[in-house]
Design goal:
403 residues; alpha/beta; Lyase, Ornithine Decarboxylase, Chain A, domain 1; TIM Barrel; eight-stranded parallel β-barrel; 12 helices; binds ligand LLP
């Protein structure tokens, strides 16, 4: 990848995505389910650029959405409606209405109160709702506490006895059609054991529901497949597929999984330019033009992303790579060994293809970065850098009207 050329062509800060890598990740995972009915539904929250979604849609992927905005993205990008799932703990009425009108695969309900709303809206539209219930299997996923979701103390899903009750309720409602069962215990999982335990528990529940003539069709094992940022050794897609298949052995269910990070993280680089070198006593800071508003993972989770000084070697010393934002948490790396760099040099922040751009913001009235796809050796812009007009237009209009 010629980072210098891309930086000159599109400017910095810049997200660069390797579409060939993303394609091969999808295919590896999909092939791991060979011989089983499966749907790999890309979790849009990881990287929701329309061109990225369209790339996966062309390969046959579905979409796991957590807002109606994401459902819209999936549809616009060409994901067929019958491959779209809508999850999330707090769906608004207008979002439920939108999803029902769009006739997506199923809505994943996370509480009894939400199931009530889905039922009422389905009735008012005279459209029965295909649903699943998110089961909280109460398993410790042993990942970062902010991205661990399978424990009682987390806000996600319902416990097993409640789930059972909700399925029976749904079966008896003319407006609810329970077609799926869902769990997701956390993200960036590198150990299969908690996933196996959760899958077994949820499969046991599925068996008891099927015995009650609840006609489940989808076993949705969520996302969470971990990747290597530094030295993690995650399980392989085939180990993962076997584990899920084993849990539902003998059941006629389509396996659904909702990977986000696995498909895109390693295929993304965040490219930023050095603005200044700065010393405070013994401490070296490399100040760059990207910031926490562009890539918040280091600030939010103390996450590690490898930082590479493009085309530089020698003169290594310990430094913090920091952005211009007025927060001490505005850093990409702390105490890393970096070659000496000059103004204008490029730094690549690796493994930034998931939860990078999608978590970016306009904090400090900074424009969000541009995004570029590289595929078959060719590059193309897939999102323009925001302009100051983009940023300010909706306020300027109102300010002027009030004057
Ligand atoms: N399905 C559900 C229901 C989820 O909650 C998530 C992620 C996924 C699928 C996709 O998980 P993945 O395969 O990407 O691990 N912002 C955090 C990650 C938050 C994940 C939230 N849920 C980060 O940057 O690490």
């Amino acid at each position: 990848m010629d980072y210098r050329l891309l930086a000159d062509r599109y400017g910095t800060p810049l997200y660069i995505y390797d579409f060939d890598y993303m394609t091969s990740r999808y295919e590896t995972l999909k092939n791991a389910f060979e011989g089983k009915k499966s749907l790999v539904a890309f979790a849009l929250k990881a990287n929701s650029n329309l061109s990225v979604i369209a790339r996966f849609a062309a390969l046959g992927a579905g979409a796991d959405c957590v807002s109606y905005g994401e459902v819209k993205r999936a549809l616009i990008a060409g994901v067929p409606k019958y491959k779209i799932i809508f999850s999330g703990v707090g769906k608004r009425d207008d979002e439920i209405t939108g999803a029902l009108n769009d006739d997506i695969l199923f809505i994943n309900c996370e509480s009894e109160a939400e199931l009530d709303r889905v039922e009422a809206i389905a009735q008012s539209l005279a459209k029965p709702a295909r649903i699943s219930v998110r089961v909280n299997p109460e398993i410790d996923a042993k990942t970062h506490p902010y991205i661990s979701t399978g424990l009682k103390e987390n806000k996600f899903g319902v416990d097993i006895p409640t789930a059972k009750r909700l399925y029976i309720r749904a079966k008896n409602s003319p407006w609810l059609e329970p077609v799926g069962i869902h769990f997701h215990i956390g993200s960036q999982l590198t150990d299969l054991t908690p996933i196996a335990e959760a899958a077994d528990k949820v499969a046991e529940l599925a068996r008891s529901l099927i015995a009650l003539e609840i006609d489940l069709k989808f076993f949705d094992a969520g996302g969470g497949i971990g990747v290597t940022y530094k030295d993690e050794t995650p399980f392989t897609p085939s180990q993962y597929a076997k584990t899920i298949a084993q849990a539902i052995n003998g059941l006629d269910l389509t396996i659904v999984c909702e990977p986000g990070r696995f498909l895109t993280a390693g295929g993304g680089v965040f490219l930023t330019r050095v603005l200044y070198e700065k010393r405070m006593g013994d401490k070296r800071f490399t100040v760059v033009d990207g910031a926490m508003n562009d890539l918040v993972r280091p600030a939010l989770y103390n996450a590690y992303h490898r930082v590479e000084a493009i085309g530089k070697s020698g003169g290594e010393s310990l430094c913090d790579v920091v952005g211009p934002v007025c927060e001490s948490s505005d850093f990409f790396a702390k105490n890393i060994s970096l070659p000496s760099v000059d103004r204008g040099d490029l730094l690549a922040v690796h493994t930034a293809g998931a939860y990078g751009f999608t978590m970016s913001s306009n904090f400090n009235t900074r424009r969000r970065a541009a995004e570029v796809a590289v595929e078959n050796g060719a590059d193309r812009l897939i999102r323009e850098r925001e302009t100051y007009d983009d940023l300010l237009a909706s306020e300027v209009k109102l300010l002027n009207a009030a004057r």
